[in-house]
Amino acid sequence: MDVFSFHGSFSMWKDVAGIAGNVFAFGLFVSPMPTFRRILRNKSTEQFSGLPYIYSLLNCLICLWYGSPFISQRNLMLVTVNSVGATFQLCYIILFIMHTDKKNKMRMLVLLLVVFAVVGLIVAGSLQIPDKLARWYFVGFLSCASLVSMFASPLFVINLVIRTKSVEFMPFYLSLSTFLLSGSFLLYGLFNNDAFVYTPNGIGTVLGIVQLSLYCYYHRSSIEEETKEPLIVSYV
Asked: Which is the most buried residue in 11, 37, 39, 149, by most CB within 10 A?
């Protein structure tokens, strides 16, 4: 009876972590909305790049396939979060294509087709693997690599923050949402004993802590520098 109670407790906490991860992910998915309000208002994508949305769509679709019952078991929260994420990214991409210039429009359309082709190949290829464990490893390594590369992208921003000693290009709430999302799915993966979930999200959690630490350090430093400025500047 105690064993069943123990496993039931693990299952409950896994669900709690998964639901929390879905909530934090939603905050991350809606974060580009101010950018797209500006695009819609100006009827132009200006200097904004559509590549992050293309890559995010690819990542969501690969992880969605990994979470499906065809590949892994008891990963419903992965299916929900990546379904919502893929829907948001696809909407952003469509809006971007509608308001960008002709050259970028064709480029984005080609990249979108490439994403669907790659995911189609992954789905079709994995279904050809008769052994379920081998199929799980194949798609698991792909989803893990995709997540690791996504979480590694803030390294460029971290380098920029250290070099410029400014947090201007590292929004606090975006860094916080990323940390909370990866932390939640780190726990979800641990409770579900799924290395392909907790390994990349563990890396994301560490990088999130680094980002938040840098933000606190350099934000505090900038405030201290401002307070050192004289209230009245004498030109005598």
From this structure: 39
